[in-house]
Design brief:
about 45% helix; about 850 residues; coated pit; globular; transport; membrane; 5-stranded antiparallel beta sheet; alpha+beta
Length: about 850
């Protein structure tokens, strides 16, 4: 081996002998080290390719590393490499599959995409692929899509790729989100159904605490990278048309804005960086949607607060975001940016002042910029001169003011005024093609206005970069303008380039929408409306209307005559109309007991009766895991659940919405007699005191032992202002939560369907549609219920065919489902088959309520 002109070349040796795998790996590693030292390697490539066929991880790893670094896409060895990659992709060893995928992602040649690219979507969407391989497959597919999009058609895989957003593994979701975002930019209509899934996943992340996503929490911020990717993905589409999806997205954005106001959980800069990254991307989405005036105002106020932040990078990014949004901001806040220590922040502040200048504030902004120009940094002085001159000319309404500005500009920075054209052209290469076209038109008009720079402009128009520009529009303009300036006489040139009439003034579209949507604070006559006194609703925990009759037991605490605490009295429900008198036969004893105080005051809820509205809220959880189970004026109860086969972890969050403590707080889970042997519950005790505005959590670890039909009953009791409040709610732990979607082909489905032909194994229901028969909504409900959607099984494309496996400790039960909508009659026919009749009936009863 000798070195010639920096190249390492092979020198044949007389002692040739066969090398074993370890020696090959060792020498290939040495070649990699030599390459890192800066030398070109012209031998040893075949030895690296031979390492790919080894079954040892370390040897195969070094071989793939060498190929990724040193073997180009045009190498003669690429066919051998592709064959080795193909062999590893079809192997059952996930480590070998990952190594092959990493090599493909690094090389990313068209030849690889052509020969092996078709296998990657199968790996990505297969139910048998482990999570780590799915992650690598998603990123590899993203790399190949960027380099050779035409080589890998994904039409047949679109639906499955989109549904990876529902995957339980956060790493797979992160990889899939990056892939989907790239695909959406090329074909947004094909991937439009990803919006609802992205909103659903974002909602789960935003509402989660950092303890729920420990493996994907970065300095107390749950999954910040995935949150940013999801927010960017949603910016490719208009606001969701589905009201429920739009409401959920609005709630997510409001939650992100609310979290920005919370005190930081850590003083480290990594925490604030992750938190602010999500916040800024959420504000970008709010600007993009431009549909909710309340969100726009809150986002604007949030950016205004950041202008006072001590972190330099945050202020700099904040100026850029305000400039992009073109939001109105108090001028004193922007002027303060010119005193920043960091010159880049001062540059952003000047750019923002320039962008926000209009006729109403032009004199103020131009005067401030002239004042700052005297002490401005030399790196931004030239650009400031140009911007002041443009603003003065654009918004001049008084010639005296305009002359004063120009004279002051010459006095302060006279050395730079003569170089305005050179300064303008210095930014030409940074502009987009459309902007360059406008600049070329500006240059040709400069010839008419400033003949002294005609030669300089003709040199620019005649340069090779412009005359041979790949953009046809720019090339044509340069040729025509150059000929016009050369051939035409001054008179003809003056006529052709005569100044165009001014365009009518237009208001910012964002400001116009804000003014249109923001509710006014004054009446039509200009007089301010008198605010109505705010009435605090009666403290009912059963969702009854405030005007509903109140039981005598609820009004036994009367206030003294001189009590001025009207709000407190109203909270106890004493300000409402008196309840009608009950029949004497049934109320006499109750009245005496209440008067003498022998029993504690309650909210009138029976020990076993469900709280009003509990059943409706319970049904909303049939197709989702997280959300608000109950809410009234006092208490909010949220649910966050995780299910894995026959195990479940259900977190119940109790939020005190008042400013007073809840005492004697208890929460007990009661199983029905039919469920005691089917469910195993391990509850975690809850704190007996819940402070005002605080939230406490109670965890239930649940195991499904056998099939069941009755959901557990959550009994909650606490004291508030001397009253015992009771709630009886159904905990949304139902048999369908332990379903796992199953994939199968048409032959396997019909074989199993025919095997379950006994009458008792089938449950069939024909019912009227309760909701609009929207195909996409039905699809999302089926997936949320825990079922798969099998494509190509039913000849009618409107029908849904699904399968799943029910996991219990005792056994696993296969379930087959067929849902047939009749849109003309607004009817459904639902058929469920399983080996256990009680499971078919239970699933049928649950699914019937969702369509």
């Amino acid at each position: 081996m000798i070195c010639l002109h920096g190249h390492i070349v092979f020198s044949p040796s007389t002692g040739d002998k066969t090398l074993d795998g370890y020696q090959k790996k060792k020498y290939v590693c040495k070649l990699l080290f030599i390459f890192l030292l800066g030398h070109d390697i012209d031998f040893g490539h075949m030895e690296a390719v031979n390492l790919l066929s080894s079954n040892k991880y370390t040897e195969k790893q070094i071989g793939y590393l060498f190929i990724s670094v040193l073997v180009g896409a045009s190498s003669d060895l690429m066919k051998l490499v592709i064959q080795s990659i193909k062999n590893d992709l079809v192997s059952r060893n996930p480590i070998h599959i990952n190594l092959a995928l990493h090599c493909m992602a690094n090389v990313g040649s068209k030849e690889m995409a052509d020969y092996v690219g078709g296998d990657i979507p199968k790996l990505l969407t297969s139910g048998e692929t482990i999570d780590s391989v799915k992650q690598s497959a998603g990123l590899t597919l993203l790399r190949l899509q960027r380099s050779s999009p035409e080589m890998i058609p994904l039409g047949e895989w679109t639906s499955r790729i989109i549904h990876l957003l529902n995957d339980q593994h956060m790493g797979v979701v992160t990889s899939a989100t990056s892939l989907i975002e790239a695909l959406v930019r090329k074909n947004p209509d094909e991937y439009k159904s990803c919006v609802s899934l992205a909103v659903s996943r974002l909602s789960r992340i935003v509402t989660a605490s950092y303890t729920d996503l420990q493996d994907y929490t970065y300095y107390f911020v749950p999954a910040p990278w995935l949150s940013v990717k999801l927010l960017r993905l949603l910016q490719n589409y208009p606001p969701p048309e589905d009201p429920s999806v739009r409401t959920r997205l609005t709630e997510c954005l409001e939650t992100i804005l609310n979290k920005a106001q919370e005190p930081p959980k850590s003083k480290k800069v990594q925490h604030s960086n992750a938190k602010n990254a999500v916040l800024f991307e959420a504000i970008n989405l709010i600007i993009h949607m431009d549909s909710d005036p309340n969100l726009l105002v809150r986002a604007c106020n949030q950016l205004g607060q950041f202008l006072q932040h001590k972190e330099t990078n945050l202020r700099s990014h904040n100026y850029a975001l305000i400039s992009d949004a073109m939001w109105p901001m108090e001028s004193w806040r922007l002027f303060k940016g010119q005193t920043e220590r960091d010159v880049s922040v001062r540059q952003r502040a000047v750019d923002l002042l320039y962008a926000m200048c209009d006729r109403s504030n032009a004199e103020e902004i131009v005067g401030e910029m002239l004042e700052y120009l005297e002490s401005a940094d030399y790196s931004i002085r030239e650009e400031m001169v140009l911007k002041v001159a443009i603003l003065a000319e654009k918004y001049a309404v008084d010639y005296t003011w305009y002359v004063d500005v120009i004279l002051n500009l010459i006095r302060i920075a006279g050395d730079y005024v003569s170089e305005e054209f050179q300064l303008l052209h210095s930014k030409y290469h940074l502009c987009s093609p459309n902007t360059r076209g406008l600049l070329l038109s500006t240059y040709i008009k400069f010839i008419n206005l400033f003949p002294e720079i005609k030669t300089s402009i003709q040199e620019i128009l005649g340069s090779d970069n412009n005359l041979r520009n790949p953009d046809v529009e720019l090339q044509q303009r340069c040729i025509e303008y150059l000929q016009l300036s050369t051939v035409a006489s001054p008179d003809v040139l003056a006529t052709v380039l005569e100044e165009m009439p001014p365009f009518p003034e237009r208001e910012s579209s964002i400001l116009a929408k804000l003014k249109k949507k923001k509710p006014t604070a004054t009446a039509e006559g200009g007089e301010e409306k008198e605010k109505e006194p705010r009435t605090i609703p009666q403290a009912q925990v059963n969702n009854a209307e405030p005007s509903a009759p109140v039981p005598l037991q609820a009004v036994n605490n009367t206030a003294p005559a001189g009590n001025a605490g009207g709000a407190a009295i109203d909270l106890l429900g004493l300000d409402t109309a008196p309840a009608p008198a009950a029949p004497a036969a049934s109320s006499g004893l109750g009245f005496l007991v209440d008067v003498f105080g022998d029993q504690p005051a309650t909210n009138g809820v029976d020990d076993d009766a469900l709280t009003a509205g509990a059943e409706e809220n319970f049904k909303k959880f049939f197709c989702k895991q997280n959300g608000v189970l109950f809410e009234n004026d006092l208490l909010q109860i949220g649910i966050k659940a995780e299910y894995r086969q026959n195990l479940a972890r259900v977190g119940v969050f109790f939020g005190n919405k008042t400013t007073f403590q809840f005492t004697n707080f208890t929460s007990n889970l009661v199983l029905a007699d039919s469920s005691k042997s089917a469910l195993s519950v391990q509850p975690k005790a809850v704190d007996p005191v819940v402070d005002g505005g605080a939230q406490v959590q109670q965890l239930f670890n649940i195991e499904c032992i056998d099939s069941f039909s009755d959901a557990p009953l959550l009994k909650i009791s606490f004291s508030y202002s001397g009253q015992v409040q009771k709630l009886n709610l159904k905990l949304p732990v139902i048999i369908s939560k332990f379903l796992e979607p199953a994939e199968m082909n048409s032959e396997a489905f019909f074989t199993r369907w025919k095997a379950l032909s006994q009458p008792e194994q089938e449950c069939q229901k024909i019912f009227k549609a309760q909701f609009p028969q929207d195909t996409e909504q039905v699809k999302q409900k089926v997936l949320g219920f825990g079922l798969s959607i099998l494509q190509g099984i039913d000849p009618n494309p409107d029908n849904f065919v699904s399968s799943a496996i029910l996991h219990t400790r005792n056994q696993q039960v296969g379930c087959l489902v067929r849902l047939e909508p009749n849109k003309q009659m607004q009817m459904y026919r639902l058929t469920i088959r399983s080996t256990k009749p009680e499971i078919s009936k239970a699933l049928g009863d649950l699914l019937e309520t969702q369509f």
